[in-house]
Every structure is written in structure tokens, then in C-alpha cells.
Amino acid sequence: METSFALTGKGYVIVAADTTAIRSIVKMQIDQDKIKELSPHLLMAYSGEPGDTVQFAEYVERNIRLYQIRNLYPLRPAAAASWIRRSIAETLRTRNAYSVNLLLGGYDTSSHTPNLYWIDYMGTVVEVPFAAHGYGSYFALSLLDRYHDPEASLEEGLATLKRCIDEVSKRLVVDPGKYKVKVVDKDGIREVEI
Amino acid sequence: MSIMEYNGGSVIAMVGKDCVAIASDLRLGSQALGISSNFQRIFPVTDRVYVGLPGLATDVTTLRERFRYRVNMYTIKEEREIEPETFAHLVSSTLYQHRFGPYFIEPVMAGLSKTPSGGFKPFIAATDLIGCLNFAKDFVVAGTASAKLFGVAEGLWEPDLEAEDLFETISQTLLNAVDRDAYSGWGAIVHVITKDKIITRTLKGRMD
Amino acid sequence: MARRYDSRTTIFSPEGRLYQIEYAMEAISHAGTVLGVLAKDGVVLAAEKRVTGKLLDLSSAKEGGGYGGSGEKMFLLNSNVIGGVAGITSDANSLVNYARTVAQQHLLQYNDDIPVELLAQRLCDMKQGYTQFGGLRPFGVSLLYAGYDPHYHFQLYHSDPSGNYSGWKATCIGANNGTAQSLLKQEYKDDLGVEEAIGLVLRVMSKTMDSTTLGSEKLEFAVLTYDEAAKAPKAKIYKPAEIDALLRAEGLAKKDEDTEMK
User: Fold this and answer.
1) Proteasome alpha-type subunits domain: which residues (chain C) (predicted)?
2) C100 close contact with B: CB closer than 8 A
């Protein structure tokens, strides 16, 4: 099952997701990027039903970009979270329900704060200082409870993330191996090596 | 495992002397895994009406947004704030519209309604997930810890409690009831509504 | 010559004109004036009422729950936008209702107040539809939108029956709008504060209104500012008593007169 983590720090959000695409006992791909860049300051890691995930993530990506093109300014993370949530909640009780869990991390350029939202496949949205999806969450969340610091520098944040990744490698039966890690701050989005 | 218990959470409202109080826990879980200790499920509708929405978290947000829409339209067109009884009926009819595919929420409402003489009367109400209204005179409870809340409230509640005493009573009721429930807890918030102001306090409770 | 091409919205005339839209604008030029001025810390709107009379029941406006106005010219569209309408009142009511629904829909989707320009665009998209499809006549209403959003702060827009809109620092619609517009052009300065804008609006209204003196029976007034404490826009549509007080403060109130309006 796919694992993703995210945590906030001083002026940034780190979003990490594993890079394996698994079908039954086979690793079909080991370098998949599961973190979409929705806008210059918004990242979204997705996991869940294969097919639904990429379809929904691209649907969100294109619509957020459309809003930006139409209205000259991008959606703030909070408004984007709300729109995404509504898209999930409206289809929940229909045949076209998406079974996708998301971590939405962004930097709000008007209030100069990092925001992180945990979104599940039913449309539950909650703003959190750190979050995780997948089996890895059972290991990572307690570590993050202990070691997370909302005022940590980027290096400290990445060190905390490394703790989570190492714990999952050590204890989860299906070790994902490699993770893609992206950071969003006032300067935008960049990928980092962990 | 019932869908109403998936995320956890409980709400209680009580009547006092010229005041009402509404309180809830702050836990959001994914069954046994705790996700957030800051999940708000009580929302102001107007200065004098509050609604608490325990149940499935996605429906909490959906219903809160739908009620906000309908109450905003009401306020703008009627040019006055909605009364608690009217809001309770709005909640009931909204839920019944989804009778055969309901929202998994059991709303609890608390407020002060205007009397013809210009004074205020305490008001509480609750509905089940398909909108059956219950206008109680003492207290209403809902959520995963509802059975425990009934028990403690029955023991601690008495009529005509002043605002500060009502605060103590509802706080103790909530705290002790959720401590017995695995899916509720992780913090609590209480709102006491009087005719002049609303006092909101976050309670320090067991975080296990 | 126009007669053969003016009975349907869905056809152009040989000169390339849409007569129905022009006729709609003609209808508006007979309606009560609405004037708007943009200040650096707020937007001011004023309107001349046409439906007046001793027998008119204005009790809801006097006691009203804080929304003021008699519901003829000024409407609260959303907590951050006030609309002023000029034209056919029933068409205006329909558009106002639509605007309110659109604003709430946006709130439902984005959990955020609708940006002012977006609200104007939605209404204009709808109005444009009535000039191209369905064979229905256009709305005989022009609107002024006074609003605030966090991106572009205070804004003033004007939309007309064709579905076209534009942003203004000061503008006027309805009867005598030419006079008012030229007065505004002379007297408007950038960097006006809200207080000066109020004064400017009332002075220009007194010169363009049909009636000789200003009073709350003929005037509707609204101001949109930003409340620093609540960190939210504040829309205020004045009640009749407040308008009279404002006029007295500006020295424009009518002297104690003949007709009892009570």
C-alpha cells in the first residue's frame, strides 16, 4: 500500500511519497512521481485506487490551473483544499466516486504561512501540522508526535522525515524503498534528495 | 463497524438560566488511528444559534457548508437573523430530503430565541440522521459517547443553572463521558451562549 | 429602417447593431440614478429612488435588521459586495437573486468570499446569454458592484444589458448619468478617503437628482469599508434615519418643509 508523509516547518511544507507502483506481488514501476504540482506554491501527494488516483490528480491539477489562468491569481491553499474536498464529496454517493487519499501542502503567499491538509477518500479535510497516509502512517505518526517542531528549519524537518522513512523501512513488510521528496516555500517548489 | 462511528466524536447541549451551552470533543480518527486533535464540529450559525455536528467527518463539513449557504440566503432576503426553532426545522428538512441516502450526522442545536416581549428563551434541539426533531427541555446528546453522556448528564444536570455553573456542569459531563469512550476525546471545547456574549473555552482533558 | 431588425435579440441589423440591447439601455436611462465612487479605504454608492409616496409602507426599512434600504435600488449581494441597480425593478430583483445564489455557490465550493470581478463576470455571462440564445429579451438593468476582496481590495464595476462590464474609479448609471459623469470627472481625485468620497457623492447627487432637495425618502445610500478588528469587509446600507443624519452633517439636508412624510 502506498505511503505518503508531509510535515510543516518554519515557512515550508515537505511532502514525501514512495515511488513504487505495485500490482499484487509485483513492483511494476519504482520511479513513479506521486506528487503533483498544482500551482507554483501548491503540492498534492496522492494514493489509493490505481487509476482513480492519476485521473483525479490530473483533474484537480488542470482545474486549479484553469482557475489561475481565468482569474489571474492562483487559488490559496485553503480555497484549493475546499474545492478539492467538494469534488470528492459531491461524487461520494454516486457511481463515479473517487477512491483517492491526498496530502495537500502549500505556501499561502498572502498570509506568508505554510498550510498542510489531510484529505481522505470520503472528503474529510483537516488542517494538520504533519500527516501521513497508508500503512506507513501507523509507524510515522507517533514519531512525528514526538519529534515534529513547527518552527524547525528545513534541515531539521528533513531529518525528522528521514526518521519516518527509516522506521517504515525497518518495520513495514513491503518496504517502498525510494521516496520522492518535494518542498514548497515562499520561493516555490523544488525537489530534494533525502 | 458502523459508519457513524468511523471518525468518532460527540456533542452535548444543555439548558441553563437564560443561557445555553454546547460542547464537543475535538478528536478526528480513522477508526482506531487518531488523525487530528483539533477537529471542530460545533459551528456558529448566528450570534445566538450554534450547531454541533457529530458523525462522519466529510458530512460534518458538507452539512456545515450547506447550512451556511441556506442561512446566508435567509439572512440576506429576510433581512434578519434566523431564529433557533426555524433553524432546527431547516436542519430537519435538509436531512429528510436525503431520507434514503442520508448524511451520517446527528445534529445538536443550541441557542437563544426571541420572545414576543423582547427577552430571550434558552433553546436546545437535536435530530437523528434523517431529521426527526427532539426538543428537549434539559439536555441533548449525540455521537459515539452518547450513551455515556446521557448517564453523566442525568446525574449532574439540574434546572436553572447560571452561566458559570452551567459551564462547569457541561464540562464535567463531557470530560468524564468521553474518557469512557475510545473514539471520543483528545481535547474538548465548550461554548456558553448568553444574551450579551458567548464564552468559548477549550478544556484540558486526557489526551489518550 | 430599424423596425425590421429590432424585434428579436437573436439577429443583427444590417449596420451591425443589436437593437434590443440598445432599447434596453434606453429603458435604463429613464430609471433612477445610481452613483458610485471608489476611495482608497472604501467604496460609496448612492441612488435616487423613484418609488416614493406618502402611502408607501417603509416600516421594514426603518426598523430593519441592519440591512437598511427600502429594497428598491441597493442590495446586499454578499458580505463583501453591495449592488446598486438601475432599470426595470422586477428584472433587477431577479438578477440580484441570481447574484446572491452565485456568491453562495462560490462560498460552498471555495470556502471563500467570491472575488468582486468574478461576481460581475458571472452576472454578465448570464446577461450575455439573453442576447444570443433563446430568443428572450435582455434584462433591462444596469448594475454597479461595490466590493472588497483580499486580492484587489476595493473595486467598483458597472455592467449593462449587453453583458459587458468594466471597472471604474467613479461612475454613474440611470437618468442624468451624463451630467453626473462629467461632474465626477472634474471633481474626482485619486487617493480620496471614504469620508471625502461620501461628500463628493452627496454633492453630485444633489446636482443631478430630479428633486430639488435631498432627503431619505428620495435617497438610498451605502458604503463598503474594511473592518480591521474583524478582518472582514463591512457592508453598510444606510437606514432612512442615518441618511438624514448624514445629509445634515454634510449641510445638504432640506429645511423643515411642507409635506409630512411620516
Assistant:
1) 5-27
2) yes
Q: What is the DSSP string of A105-139?
A: EEEETTTTEEEEEEE-TT--EEE-SEEEESTTHHH
Closest chain C residue to B66, measured at CA: C108
Neighbours of chain A (3+ CB pairs under 8 A): B, C
- B28 vs A: CB within 8 A: yes
Query: Which of C67, C79, C100 lies nearest to residue B73, judging by beta carbons?
Result: C100
* Distance between CA atoms of residues A20 and A180, nearest Å: 10
Residue contacts between A and B (CB atoms, under 8 Å) = 40
Q: What is the DSSP letter of A149?
A: -
Cα separation of B46 and B42, whole Å? 12
What band does C11 get if pLDDT is binned at 50, 70 and 90? confident
Residue pair C110/C151 in contact by the 8 Å Cβ criterion: no
**Cβ within 8 Å of residue C63, ≥6 positions away:** none
In this structure, what C-alpha cell is assigned to residue C191? 487617493
**Measuring CA to CA, which residue among C73, C71, C102, C115 is closest to residue C233?**
C115
Q: Which chain B residues are closer than 8 Å to A138 by Cβ? A: 33
* Mean pLDDT over the full length of chain A: 94
Q: Is C213 touching B (CB cutoff 8 A)?
A: no
B56 close to A (CB below 8 A): yes
| CB distance A10 to A176 below 8 Å | no
Chain A contact for B7 (CB, 8 A cutoff): yes
Q: What is the rounded average pLDDT for all residues in chain C?
A: 89
pLDDT digits (tens, 9 = 90+) for B144-193: 999 999 999 999 999 999 999 999 999 999 999 999 999 999 999 999 99
Q: What is the ipTM of this complex?
A: 0.90
> What phi and psi, each to the nearest 5 degrees, are found at residue C176?
55, 30
The residue of chain A with its CA nearest to that of B103 is: A93
Q: What stretch of H or E contains C149?
A: strand C141-149
Contact of C110 with chain A, judged by CB distance below 8 Å, is answered with yes
d(CA A46, CA A57): 7
The pTM of this model reads 0.91
- Does the structure show a pLDDT above 50 at B44? yes
Residue/partner pairs of B151-156 with CB below 8 Å, 24 or more apart: B151/B177, B152/B176, B152/B177, B153/B12, B153/B14, B153/B177
> Any chain C CB within 8 A of the CB of A73?
yes
- Residue from the list A71, A78, A79 with its beta carbon closest to the beta carbon of C118: A71
Of B35, B62, B101, the CB nearest to A126: B35
Backbone angles phi, psi at A112, to 5 degrees: 55, 45
Are C115 and A71 within 8 A, CB to CB? yes
* Residue carrying C-alpha cell 430639488: C212
